[in-house]
Specification:
The protein is an alpha+beta fold. It is elongated, with a radius of gyration of 21 Å. The protein starts with a strand and ends with a strand.
Length: 134
């Protein structure tokens, strides 16, 4: 799963970088642009990726963090849309059948997948925003 991190100096975001830190060959993108680095270069660690990117930008003449500045690396919470199936009585489709608890509902990545899970004429597909977590 791709994650986004930001390099923060005194509360100000100076840059963001994105990669799938579980995949060694995943490219590390800086502010949406390619870099010469892959996750393996950063030993799968966002803090090491930040160090690599800061040093690379310094060498390319585009300083992110000044010599006398301290920085922090923070994960950026991303909202994603998931789909659930609920019927007219308020019950949700779940792996164990039907449940009144929305937090136990099966979540589908696409509306089409959710529509395929509709079994009853009263089933409806609902979209909801959730914060992606690792």
């Amino acid at each position: 799963m791709t994650s986004t991190y930001k390099i923060v100096v005194a509360g100000e975001t100076r840059a963001t970088f994105t990669a799938d830190f579980a995949q060694a060959s995943s490219p590390i993108m800086l502010d949406g642009n390619s870099t010469p680095f892959q996750v393996a270069d950063a030993r799968h660690k966002p803090s090491k990726a930040a160090e690599l990117l800061i040093d690379w930008c310094d060498s390319e003449g585009g300083e992110i963090v000044g010599d006398d500045e301290e920085y922090e690396v923070e994960a950026v919470a991303e909202e994603i849309t998931v789909y659930v199936v609920r019927d007219a009585s308020g019950e949700y489709v779940s792996g164990s059948g039907r449940t009144p608890a929305s937090n136990e509902a099966d979540e589908f990545e696409t509306r089409e997948e959710a529509e395929e899970a509709c079994e009853r004429a009263t089933d409806a597909v609902l979209a909801r925003q959730v914060v992606a977590s690792e």
